[in-house]
Task: structure prediction
Amino acid sequence: MKAFQEDLSKFESLNAQVLGISPDDVETHKRFSKELGLQFPLIADTDQKIRKLYKPGRVTFVIDQNGVIRFIQEGMPRNKALLEEIKKLEKKPQ
Amino acid sequence: MKILFVSVAFIISLLFPWEAFGLDAGDKAPLFEGVSTQGVIRLSDYLGKKVVVLAFYFKDFTSG
Result:
């Protein structure tokens, strides 16, 4: 999540909203955000309801403005590749 | 041979249901709503406005 914060302005300049999500509760998320200085929201998926809708594991989804999944990145997030994928979306007509 | 293939595919789908039926690029993202550090977040709030980078991770206070 720290890496997302470091590149947050790059995501924002591409009109992308970063959302972190884990089973931790909101209080834990708040402490974590404070410690790392995270400025984007962390969702408390305490019952893992949202994860069950998506995919198990460490995985990052890029969802376009039409609500379509455009890119799935498994494993630790790699911002460079994520930003490249978001840039590609910009060039395609919505 | 065909029966063997179907059986193997069926067993894989039982072991790794997300591989068989999971989401792929091009699929509609399931709508969700959740409490966050910045209030309630709904995917629908971003539609038509922003690209969403939804990053699942295991636990706070761990790397990544």
Remarks:
- Chain A has five helices and four strands.
- Chain A has one domain: 2-91.
